[in-house]
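Narrative summary of target 7.
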Amino acid sequence: MFVILHRHIIIYCVGIIIFSQTPQAMTFLSASSAHVLATLLSLHDSESFPRREFRLKFKIKEDEINQRYNSYDSHMALHKDIVRRRPVQLDIGPVFSERPRYQCLIGRDNLERVGRELIFDVDLKDYDDVRHCACVQRQQGLRVCRDCWPIAMAAAKIIEFLLREKFGFIHTVYFFSGSKGIHCWVLDEDAFTMPDSARRAISNYFKIFCNPNSWSEVHETKCFAMQACFHSLMTPMFTEILGNGFFDARTEVVRNAIAEVVNSNSGCDFKFPILDSGWDSASTWERYRMAIQKQCANFKAVLRTIVFRFIFPRIDYSVTETVQHLIRAPLTPHSATGLYCVPLRLESIDSFNAANVPSLQATENLKVYENMLLEMLTPPWNKVYVCAQCTKNVKDVYDTPPEALLFTETDFHDHTKQHGKQFDPEVVVFSMYMKNLIPKASNLNIKRAFMQLCMNS
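Modeled conformation, tokenized:
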């Protein structure tokens, strides 16, 4: 134990001696950003923040030093330590049963992981087999460009659809990673306390491809379970992205990916049709589709697999499957690019531009993202109301049509007037009834109606 403690003391002292309080250190994690981060990390338990693990990464010349099991009593303590020691990266770990910084005294084996948010990490570098943008051509894989952002956009929308429709999660927040991907945080309380076995089951649901090293074959049973997502979301997005020219069907990268899928799933040697030099990407894909239909007996399965290969989320399964895996802290910069990890609004993710993201050299609009994240942390059930008078008159709430129970704020004002009452704050208190009713509701119609109201409110 003395050796371990001695090693940590050396690392701690090196950090103090080498680094000084510079303007860059002050902006790495400002006091206001630390406050928002603490709000995010203690969403379900206000007393859990001191038991949250943080990893600090230092860079000394060419060497990197990672120090795990840091913890702080408050967000100001975190901010002051960051300013004093100047790490190049801050990562988030799980909440423990005790303060992890005392792991040398109480023994690491006595630290029990209580929980962590369910997180999905999508890295665009995993799509290099279908990307043909400047990021790949110039081998500048650290940043995302406007051309390859549609992949991240599609991944986020598909993850959101599956999390809501298949798993019933309600409260999600998305972040730009600061480099070349996105992070999805599921903030539902049930997700936070979920054991690793359940996390692995959810991760396994997203393992649609038969071979983890190849994207040419998919599990048919899993594809069947995703039919709603495929027809209502994936196919239109694939067609739109092709029409916009990102997946340019005329490029060699896309042609090779299509040929690999066709040959692997049909057993035939696919022959591309002769193309007119003046055709755009959408017209070219239409000719490919007709050729596949003509040359492959199982052309429907082949076309479906092509869509999955190009836009289905390729998540980092290790991040999702265990609570012990670390993830970059929101509102902190990426160690390689200097760009901040900032929240994304799913409804406007199409127009996101990484060039406008705050960096260590320009933090003027970072406050905008802090306020945006605070707004996103409001539990969605606080945006949907239930009438206290109606619930008293309902014998079995689960058999009642959802529209008779759930209201947006505007509709709730009008509805309460039907009972001869004006809008009364004491009545709104009953909206917290939703917190207990909806996440555990056995009637899926009520749950889906609730989630729809959340998205529209």
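Residues 2-115 form one domain.
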